[in-house]
Amino acid sequence: MIEVQINGAKEKVEPGTTVSGVLAAKAVRPEMVAVEINGELVPKGKYATLALQAGDAMEFLHYMAGG
Amino acid sequence: MFETFCISRELHDGIVGHARRGAPHEVCGMIGGANSTAAGIYPTKNPDAGELTYSIDPREAFSVIRRMRDAELDFIAVYHSHPATEAYPSPTDRAKAGDSDLIYVIVSLRQPEKPEVRAFKMSEGRVHELKVVVE
Fold this sequence. Notes:
heterodimer, A: mainly beta, Ubiquitin-like (UB roll), 1 helix
């Protein structure tokens, strides 16, 4: 297991866990959220392939919009 | 029984003031606090710059969340204005509300001298109103 931060909280995940894997584990629909790792926005096309590394800080939040 | 959203008079008036300054365009921002009690408002840009829609750029939103965390606040609510319509979620608000834990605060300037602030939770198109307590 590796230690990462997800939305500010320390968590342990399996090595190789991707952004998509984290979102799926939290029952979050990937198309509804923006994701940042270590302060950099992650393109949606990389969610399925980008694996977290030890010490990474991942943040996700739902898009906010309306009318 | 209503859940409540508690906000100080100062923060309440801050949101209303932001809405008035931005009218006739919609304005938006984020609210930090704990549980359902507001402790700080963070006005954000509205890239839509329109009278009918708002959005918050994710880059700015992440930056605001870091500021909230530095201030030991949780991100509890998002607010936006309805310059000419009631303080109730529009069909667009309902369709785009993705976070069922987040409180959605709407300020209406339909009656400019009598602004109205209401708070809601939304999930899959359903709307649940919270009682706004200004103290």
